[in-house]
């Protein structure tokens, strides 16, 4: 471990960057003890140097030119906290090639371009740390890469998107529509002005892809996994699930199933006394199952300025004291391991929750149950609600069907036929049921 | 990181040692990838070489002489998995001085003699790892020493003793007496034949002392903390708490309170919808609160062969790939930090649960409430049960009193006076209430 101070450049100075700068300024003595050397913030790169900011550490030069970092040989570590993948990828590649090590919180970057960046880092003898890319302040990358190294990991299961979880919690507890809860999430800063990637499952899927690569040495691109969001859920669905003893959560699952890998992100009914059900608001939770440790559960803030800054700082100190290089070398070695085959999406069997809005007239139920029966979907319970619910159109009824376990393929085929029935209004909503 | 295989000696080959040997034998290829070198179990030290064992790895010499390890310069790492503190301390000191690094799961050793061993290791340039000493498979040492290094830790709170938690869970869910549940815990291997250290709080207190040293750079010997066990609890207490909306858990708490340190292990009423309340059976849970990360919760198996072996193996791989030396150097530096003053035990204010068995005759309630009133203990609710409960002697009644917040000192003084009242049978039971 070198004696000289560690010189750090911050690339991007938004919410999380400001949090990191605050910790570096306010905790400097304690951080030196933990890192074994002084941590020195030597440069900040921003897009607009004239923008008013809540906090800028005294004496740190602020520039809008990334070359001021790339060309500065005194800088050891670039902490890159910008979103998107275009500039982020280009900067990261150039920083690594210029001899800087990299800490990043950018999940989209690591998910889509991790392999490319890891190759560049391997060739340049550099290190990449990305704890903050997954689940904010929860050290789940650390858990997989260091705490569970004696285990064959069998399952990763969790709530990885705080925005969706906030919206679902808010809808049920405050009796709000999806739109009302989304608007509140935006007002509180839990959702972006364009919330698409959060509510359609993409954000959780990107995080799950990163964890899947670490735990199973297998690349599963987001567009090859089951990825469904919360944007079709209504308050009536949450209430119906509640009356059946469940909460609906956006669940991310990556697991070994018959020696193959099953990976999905989708709204799922979880028993209401489970830890998953009790993960509320913007919190995240991840359960890792290993052959030796059993079930290890980590819960906490999955996003936000200071929790994410906490994860970034863990990487910075891991790097400063000399641990990160060893972890990253193991991540590189892990990529050479044989990868797993994906289980076809039609294969896994689940119980399902099915909600359809149907015309309120004779023989509708017979049509619906006939289709389910022909696809060998067995009904466990059924509820036909009065057409009085405010979200249900007049002259229509809401059918809630819980099925027994059936393969996804059969369920999808039945679902497609249901959607084509003239007595069904719009599309049916199909959710999986955990357990 | 050296290229040669890592030569490991196992000192102690009981339940956990056997688990470690199994993982080393069964996962060797995966472990090499994660460690960056081959892991080679080169010797096992046992007390009795002739004892029948469920599993002994092929080709590994088994000896009853520790000097076979101490004198073998080819051995890099001693994984010491023996209990007690006498032989364990002597062996550990000699192993470190002979140039071996040390992994241990012995909480009593690290709690009572950690400083002494750390000094020996520092002088000899050696490393000590002890993840498995606290909370079995839950990586809480890792969380404090690596994942939360950007934080000022404010609170450690958790269920750290699986035996007590199993007994309390069992009593309430199966309607068993303390004695019945303890006997079952012994039959299932969750409790030793002499369960004293588990049920009187000592085991949890030792673990809490280790975490307190890491998080707050402060030594709090077990005999200087509030340390109460579960051995005076009855099923009627658990049921009374349940009817009030609480579970009783053996809660370990170490936290900054008015710039001083409050450390306690004691049965505590926790709200029944909290994560603590829902930690059942032999599981452990720890919540770490940091100024940046907020509340981070870790839950899982707190003991048992394979979960503890999982933690031991994490240390072995941390050591093998070169991370452990950096973490241990930070642990040594941390000891030089200013330590915190202990908050006098009388200072912290809590709500309390008070249970007394009283003579069933006039004026008893007046005597009790008079004492509480004089000590400024304000009553929040009171329940006098019928004398019909099977645990309540005839001609007597059970009083359950919930108080408002009051300083521990006042509550203790009131409690002592109550115990001296002639109408009170035996001693009152006083539990704190969380929140």
Overview of this structure, please?
2 copies of one chain form a homodimer. With 435 residues, chain A is of the alpha/beta class. Chain A folds into 3 domains: 6-136 and 308-334, 3-Layer(aba) Sandwich (Rossmann fold), CATH 3.40.50.720; 140-299, Dihydrodipicolinate Reductase, domain 2, CATH 3.30.360.10; 349-433, ACT domain (Alpha-Beta Plaits). Helix content of chain A is 38%, strand content 26%. The first copy, chain A, is built from 15 helices and 17 strands. In chain A, helix 7 (162-174) packs across helix 8. The model of chain A has no long low-confidence stretch (mean pLDDT 95). The interface between A and B is large, with 61 and 61 residues.
CATH topology of the largest domain in chain A: Dihydrodipicolinate Reductase, domain 2
Largest sheet of chain A: 11 strands, mixed
Poorly predicted regions of chain A are: none
The strand count of chain A comes to 17
At the fourth level of CATH, the homologous superfamily of the largest domain in chain A is Dihydrodipicolinate Reductase, domain 2
- The structure class of chain A reads alpha/beta
- Name of the CATH first level of the largest domain in chain A: Alpha Beta
Q: Tell me what portion of residues of chain A adopts beta-strand conformation.
A: 25-35%
Assembly of the depicted chains? homodimer
Radius of gyration of CA atoms of chain A, rounded to a whole number: 24 Å
Total domains of chain A: 3
Task: Give the integer mean of the pLDDT values of chain A.
Answer: 95
Distance between the termini of chain A: 48 Å
Biggest interface, which chains? A-B, 61 and 61 residues
Percent helix among the residues of chain A?
25-40%
Number of helices of chain A: 15
Proper CATH architecture of the largest domain in chain A: 2-Layer Sandwich
> What best-fitting shape of chain A do the alpha-carbon axes yield?
elongated
């Amino acid at each position: 471990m070198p004696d000289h101070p560690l010189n750090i450049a911050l690339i991007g100075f938004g919410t999380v960057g400001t949090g990191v700068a605050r910790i570096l300024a306010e905790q400097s003595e304690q951080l030196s003890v933990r890192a074994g050397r002084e941590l020195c913030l030597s440069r900040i790169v921003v897009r607009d140097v004239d923008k008013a900011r809540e906090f800028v550490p005294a004496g740190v030069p602020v520039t809008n030119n990334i070359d001021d970092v790339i060309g500065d040989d005194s800088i050891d570590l670039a902490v890159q906290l910008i979103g998107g993948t275009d500039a982020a990828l280009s900067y990261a590649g150039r920083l690594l090639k210029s001899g800087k090590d990299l800490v990043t919180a950018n999940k989209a970057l690591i998910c889509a371009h991790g392999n490319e960046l890891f190759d560049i880092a391997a060739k340049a003898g550099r290190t990449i740390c990305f704890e903050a890319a997954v689940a904010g302040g929860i050290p789940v990358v650390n858990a997989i890469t260091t705490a569970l190294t004696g285990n064959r990991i069998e399952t990763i299961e969790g709530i990885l998107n705080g925005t969706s979880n906030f919206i679902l919690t808010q809808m049920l507890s405050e009796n709000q529509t999806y739109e009302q809860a989304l608007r509140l999430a935006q007002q509180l800063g839990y959702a972006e002005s364009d919330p698409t990637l959060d509510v359609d499952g993409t954000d959780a899927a990107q995080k799950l892809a990163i964890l899947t690569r670490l735990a199973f040495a297998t690349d599963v691109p987001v567009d090859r996994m089951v990825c469904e969001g919360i944007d079709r859920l209504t308050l009536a669905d949450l209430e119906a699930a509640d009356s059946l003893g469940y909460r609906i959560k956006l669940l991310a699952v990556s697991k070994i199933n018959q020696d193959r890998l099953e990976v999905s992100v989708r709204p799922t009914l979880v028993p209401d006394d489970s830890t998953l059900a009790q993960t509320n608001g913007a919190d995240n939770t991840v359960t890792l199952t290993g052959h030796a440790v059993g079930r290890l559960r980590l819960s906490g803030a999955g996003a936000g300025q200071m929790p994410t800054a906490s994860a970034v700082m863990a990487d910075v100190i891991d790097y400063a004291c000399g641990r990160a290089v060893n972890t990253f070398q193991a991540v590189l070695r892990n990529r050479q391991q044989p990868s797993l085959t994906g289980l076809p999406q039609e294969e896994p069997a689940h119980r399902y929750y099915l909600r359809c809005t149907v015309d309120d007239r004779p023989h509708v139920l017979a049509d619906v149950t006939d289709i389910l029966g022909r696809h060998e979907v067995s009904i466990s319970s059924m509820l036909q609600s009065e057409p009085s619910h405010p979200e249900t159109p007049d002259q229509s009824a809401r059918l809630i069907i819980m099925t027994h376990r059936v393969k996804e393929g059969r369920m999808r085929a039945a679902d497609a036929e249901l959607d084509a029935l003239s007595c069904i209004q719009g599309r049916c909503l199909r959710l999986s049921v955990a357990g």
